[in-house]
Structures are given as C-alpha cells and as structure tokens.
Design brief:
Elements (H helix, E strand, L loop, with lengths): L1 H17 L4 H22 L21 H26 L17
Length: about 110
C-alpha cells in the first residue's frame, strides 16, 4: 500500500514538472518518473513478504525473486545515462531556443 502511494506521489510530481516550460524542470520530471517506475518494479517483486534473494535458507519458497531487483538496477543505470544526455543537450542548446512565452508585438 505504501509503495502505491509513493509511486502515485512521484508520478504526480513528474507530471507537474513535465508540464513546465523550462528544460531543467522537464528533466527533473523524467527523473521522478523513472523513480516511480523503479518503486513499481520493486513492489511487483514482493520483497516485503520474502527474505533476501541470496543465501541458504531452509525453505526456498521464502527466497525473494532477484529478477525485479536486477530490473531496477538496470533501470537506474539507464535513467542516469538518459539524464546526463538530456542535461548535456539542455546546456549545449542553441540560444534561439525560446522557452518563454512572449506577447505578440503590436504592429504600428
């Protein structure tokens, strides 16, 4: 239940930031969206009701599935690299990229 609330709040924050016009806020929105996906993947793994994924437990039905944890680790690496690429594109962008809304000039 708490993972669903956390994922919902992260998605809400991500959508709010993605609706902004500044590039940095859009990038932060993508970061939050990636974190929400990671929380959903970890919640899908059911790690709260199981033990560690490695070791030698007596009952193998209590061992956690390591696959969702591997997915999250891969998603963290991919999200980090995409964030770096977006930040580089935001910094090296052209100066004629106009992100501010300007009123139309009055013609005389």
């Amino acid at each position: 239940m708490s993972a669903a609330v956390i994922a919902g709040l992260l998605v809400f924050g991500a959508v709010y930031l993605l609706m902004q016009r500044e590039m940095l806020r859009v990038i932060l929105g993508f970061v939050l969206l990636g974190h929400a996906g990671n929380v959903v993947l970890m919640a899908a793994g059911g790690s709260a009701r199981r033990h560690e994924p490695f070791g030698a437990p007596e009952d193998l039905s209590t061992v956690a599935d390591p696959l969702p944890q591997a997915f999250v680790l891969t998603a963290i690496v991919i999200a980090f690299s995409i964030t770096i690429v977006m930040l580089v594109l935001a910094v090296t962008g052209r100066d004629d990229d106009d992100t501010e809304a300007k009123p139309e000039e009055v013609r005389s």
